[in-house]
Design goal:
Blueprint lengths: L2 H24 L9 E5 L6 E4 L15 E4 L14 H13 L5 E5 L2 H7 L11 H4 L5 E4 L9 H11 L4 E4 L3 E6 L2 H23 L9 H11 L5 H15 L7
Parallel strand pairs: 5-6
Antiparallel strand pairs: 1-2, 1-4, 2-3, 4-7, 6-7
Length: 248
């Protein structure tokens, strides 16, 4: 890829990642000025875009995103550098898991509520919940706000090659190859967790699918993987119609 095309690619990736912040706020997945999204832009995954420190999701534009290097601790000395917890989680994952190109971490209401339960497993009770059958890592060892490299390494180790991680007593983390795929995954994850929490709230026993049916349903979802890009494009059109500043 020549320099011009590479620059154009990174510019588009900036726009897509910025859109994800606005969509998170639109869907009520944001929390104050906390949480971070990141996207690898180098082949080894170590150079990545991330939101600047303490900026509300609805005020983040493509031009605001920081370009960081996971191998350079001095990145934390730059203006607007992310807080230590963001560097600990995102920096370590981008440094050690090159397949995790886009990383979205939120404390969205229903996924976070499920992470607070003693059993945070997403039970396959419908089409959406079954999407995640045997495809979620669960971190049951929350140790407080992540500040240190060792905690980042532990989190990355638990995530491994999974796309989703339920973080007990904390929230949820989603990784994918692109912003569109990560956004679509997070969207369906929150929908699935909402369905499960509402089913739990009835107090009645859950009608859980067999392992065979749940696996078949999860595999069938993979046949529709291209829909993630159409979903994300449609949502960007909605943001543009609302006058969002994400592309600035």
């Amino acid at each position: 890829m020549n320099v011009t095309k590479l620059a154009e690619k990174i510019d588009q990736e900036r726009i897509d990642l910025a859109a994800a912040f606005h969509l998170a706020a639109l869907n009520d997945w944001h929390e104050s000025i906390a949480n971070h999204f990141s996207l690898a832009v180098s082949s080894d995954g170590k150079q990545f875009l991330m939101n600047p420190r303490w900026r509300h999701f609805t005020r983040i534009s493509a031009s605001d995103l920081l370009l960081l290097d996971a191998d350079k601790e001095m990145s934390m000395d730059e203006p607007g550098a992310p807080d230590p917890s963001a560097w600990c989680i995102h920096g370590t994952i981008h440094r050690t898991l090159p397949q995790a190109r886009c990383l979205l971490h939120v404390h969205s209401p229903y996924a976070t509520a499920l992470s607070y339960l003693k059993d945070p497993e997403i039970k396959p009770i419908d089409q959406n919940t079954a999407r995640f059958f045997n495809r979620v890592a669960v971190d049951m060892n929350y140790g407080g706000i992540a500040h240190h490299e060792e905690e980042g390494k532990r989190i990355a180790s638990v995530l491994g090659n999974k796309r989703i991680m339920m973080m007990a007593n904390h929230g949820v983390l989603v990784v994918a190859n692109s912003v569109a795929e990560a956004y679509d995954e997070l969207y369906y994850l929150e929908r699935a967790c909402k369905t499960l929490i509402l089913a739990y709230s009835t107090g009645q026993p859950l009608n859980i699918m067999s392992d065979e049916l749940a696996e078949q349903t999860a595999s069938d979802w993979e046949l529709y993987s291209d829909s993630a890009f159409s979903h994300f494009d449609e949502m960007k059109q909605i943001l543009a119609a609302q006058g969002s500043c994400f592309a600035d």
